[in-house]
Structures are given as C-alpha cells and as structure tokens.
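Structural prep section.
Before we set up the soaks we want a predicted structure of the protein with flavin-adenine dinucleotide in place, mainly to decide which crystallisation condition to try first. Input record follows.
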Amino acid sequence: MDFGLSSEQRMLIDTVRRFITSELRPLEEEVELDGALAPEKARDILEKSKTLGLYAMNIAEDFGGGGLSTLDWMLAEEQFGHTTDILVRRAFGNIYEILLAGDEAQRERWLLPSVRGERTFSVAFTEPEAGSDAAGIRTRAIRTNDGWLLNGYKHFISDGLFSDFFVVTAVTNPDAGKHGISTFIVDKAMEGVSIGRDQPMMGLRGTSHVELFFDQVHLKQEHLLGAEGKGLKLALETLGRIRLAQIGARSIGKATRILDLSLAHAGERKQFGKSIGDFQMIQQMLADSAVEINAARLALHRTAWEIDQGLDARNQISVVKVQASETLNRVADRAVQIFGGMGYCKDLPIERYYRDARIYRIYDGTSEIHRSVIARALMKGDTSLYQMTT
Ligand SMILES: Cc1cc2nc3c(=O)[nH]c(=O)nc-3n(C[C@H](O)[C@H](O)[C@H](O)COP(=O)(O)OP(=O)(O)OC[C@H]3O[C@@H](n4cnc5c(N)ncnc54)[C@H](O)[C@@H]3O)c2cc1C
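Run finished without errors. Recording the tokens verbatim:
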C-alpha cells in the first residue's frame, strides 16, 4: 500500500492549484455579482489552460485529451473544487465520457471539437416528471423513414445557454420500459430545438440551467448514440467516473478550502479576550470537519484506484457520492457557525460556499437514490463496500 504522491502528481496538483489561484479566483467575485462570466474572459481562461495542457484531461490522448489515470484526474478535480462551477467548466472543460460511445464519424463530429475546446455540450436527461426516475421520461423519438422525429421537454440542463449540442434521452419504444430508451446527440442549431427559461437557482451563479424544448426535430441515424434501446444502460455505464470527479473530488476540494478558511478565522477572531479557536466547541467543529474530509478523500482515492485496476467500482462510486457531498454540506454548515454573523453576510464568500454546497446532495443522483444503490448492493452480498478487499 502506497499513499505517497509521485513527483508528476505533485507537479499536476501544483500546476492546477497555481492556475486556479492566479487565473480563476480573481474572477469569482465578478461572476457572483454579474451572474455570468464575460465571453472574452471565458475564451481567455480556456486558451491559457489549453496552453498548459489542462483542458479535457479526463479524455484519452488518442482523442487529444490529457489521458490522465482516474486517480490523477481525481487529484486535479479536487483542486477544481477550490473554485466555482462555471470557471471550472470554461477553463478545464466538462467532457462527459458518454461521447466516447460514438462511432468514428460521431467522434470526429462531436467528441474531437469538444476536446479541442471548440464546442461545448450538456447532458439532457431530466424532465419535470422524471428526475430520480430517469426511465419515466416522456420525450419521444418516433421512427420515420430515415430516422426519428423528436418531441419533448427537458429541464435543469446545466450550461445549456453555452452548449452547442446536447446528449438527450428519449423513448423510442414505449412498450419496453427502461429498455425502450435511446440516446441522441442533438445540435442546438437544429430546427425545432429551442431554449426556454434560464431557471434561477440557489447557488452556482454564472452557470445556466435551462429548459430545453424539442418540437418535431428530425433526427437521422448519425444522431443515435450507442444502440437503440440501450440509452439508459449507456448513461449508467459512462457517467460513473465523471460523477466521482465532479461530485466526489470537487466536494472534497470545496470542503478543504472551507476548512482552511475556518481554521484561519478560528485563529484570528478574538472574543472574551481569546481566539475563538481556544473554545472547545469551536475546536470540535474543526476536528469533525478534518476527520470527515480525511475519510472521504481516502474513499475517493481507493475508488479511483479500483477503476484504474479495471474493477467494477459502480457501487463504490455511490458510497463516495454520498460521503463526499454530505461531508461538504456539514463542513460548510459548520463554517457559517464558526464565522458567526460574517458567515451569513455576503461580504465574505462563506455564505456562497454554503449555498453552492447544497446541490451536491441532489444532482447526479440524490443521496437517497445512491443510498438505495448501496443498500441493494449490500443485500446482494457486496461486502467490499465496508470490508477490506484482499
Ligand atoms: C442545479 C441543477 C443542475 C442540474 N443539471 C442537470 C443536467 O445538466 N442534466 C440533467 O439531465 N439533469 C440535471 N439536473 C437534474 C438533477 O439530476 C435532478 O434534479 C435530480 O436527479 C433529482 O431529480 P428531481 O429534481 O426530479 O427530484 P425527485 O426525483 O422528484 O426527488 C424528490 C425527492 O424524492 C426522493 N426520492 C425520489 N425517488 C426516491 C426513491 N426511489 N427512494 C427514496 N427517495 C426518493 C429524492 O431523493 C428527493 O429527495 C440538475 C438539477 C439541478 C438542480
């Protein structure tokens, strides 16, 4: 067992950390106030990150990406957690691996430009009537002579305003339940595709979350991603690693930044003639946060390692999703308490971290859904979720 970092891993962490500190952090306040990142600034951070080789680092080198192992990718993603969602999207890319399921022509048309940072895309699965129950969607793709006719409505689609295309789930066979759902790549410019409201959210300022409408959109065979009827399976199989990164690693990064600030404040802030960090009740909060972050990071690294060994870590990813996102929420809540009134006041970023943290327990599968996955796996005898694997 080796918990040490190689010199390459240290260099990766250091490069990402320095980039975030010098290029992204200075933009945070402005994005929060304006509710958007100015397009010229988005282009600037994209170009700078590409020059450093930091864009699309999860995608294999064969497709022009950084080709990082899962573990190395998680080390970088933990650093991404030290800044905000929209800045990470623009600077480092947000390339869902579901596109790797495309054939050569699809990779050429949609994957490669995304890896080069020329095109952006979102996944559009959720509908007002179907969130946790992803198989309950109503969007229909009806067979025509030369393809399908797409009609329906999605919502909460992250980065939808900025996206050039969408990976969309639709029912192709209503009699086949979850086996009757297929995945399509739909360009925003296609006739019949329209964007509705940018749905206002509690946090994540600067990232758009939109309604997406499909009205008689003509899809051809080239738009079908993977096999017909296998759309849900494809999503389940390809979203795991990105979930581990975007929720697991980023939650831990965010919690770490929040604890850093909490510790500094506990040392500096004086009441009753002492640092508040001298009070045991404050100390308990600090210690609990450190204990939980430490445990969540170990689980993240173990899971990443398992994936790199070619093991099936899908259930373990659910463990990390719950553990890391709930740790982040507890750490953020304690930080507001440690900062007192200043934790609630917009003059400091603590209240923003608290708001931004809340979504991590909801999207990419709620805590309840992932607990159900964990419990089902346990009941089927997957003891690796709590026993030492040999
Ligand atoms: C900011 C934001 C960004 C998003 N980005 C995207 C995106 O880019 N693309 C996309 O497709 N979707 C996106 N989503 C949707 C997100 O994934 C869903 O909101 C999430 O999966 C939950 O679905 P829901 O909101 O419909 O809640 P519901 O499914 O209605 O759940 C409501 C409550 O019921 C509980 N519940 C439901 N079923 C069960 C069950 N079987 N057992 C126990 N409890 C249960 C849930 O845990 C939750 O507490 C985003 C959402 C938000 C808010």
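Observations: The longest strand covers residues 147-158.
Flagged for discussion at group meeting.
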